[in-house]
Amino acid sequence: MYVPESIVRELINYRDIDRRQIIDDARAHGRYDKIARPLVVEDLAQPIAVDYTSAGVKVSVKVSNLDHTDRRRLYIAGDLGLEPASFWLTERGMPVSVSRWKGLFHEANVRCADVGMPLRVHPHMLRHTFAVVTLEQLQRGHIAALHEQTAEQRGHYTRIFGDPLDWVRRRMGHRSITTTMIYLHTLAELEMETRMALVPDDWEEPPAPPNPLASNTDVPQ
């Protein structure tokens, strides 16, 4: 996911300061020790979680196969004990639930309304924004890379790196490219910039055809 460098710095600060303090406080109160059947990732190099059935049988589970509900049960085994695998945590050190995320956006909308700002957002808008911004940036890079290449090189480049729209389709989890194409309407400005960029610098407007009515020839009345 492509984000500005300033946002990355803010995320690192949250991880190293706020999130670390929240986790330390949760450990001090023994909250993670009370988690029923956590899915524990023992090796960060392996996206495998360990689960124990009600009979105490150890089972390995691929993280990629977990839905959003089970992902909230993911914990990492560290030297100091368990900590949530989720990046964003509540003040109690627990993963943020779907309902809580919706509540955060609702509270933000209310604060905006209170100061007279006509702005309303919702969680799904983040997904939409990711798709549009990523597609635009990939398309710009794709066009720039193809501009200096021959037809053979362009074909080779496309076979290796694929199409930007298909790249976004896979990241969004769409089965059909038709679903992803709903984001194309937002790229109308980029399309025009692309078309203008393809116009050669030495292009001149062709002369207008002569107007027969503007000639000196007598026109029958």
UniProtKB/TrEMBL annotation:
Signal peptide: none
Region (Disordered): 201-221
Organism: Rhodococcus globerulus
InterPro entries registered for this protein in UniProt: DNA_brk_join_enz, Integrase-like_cat_sf
Protein name as catalogued: Site-specific integrase
Key words, A-Z: DNA recombination
Superkingdom to which the source organism belongs: Bacteria
Keyword Disulfide bond carried by entry: no
Hydrolase found in the keyword field: no
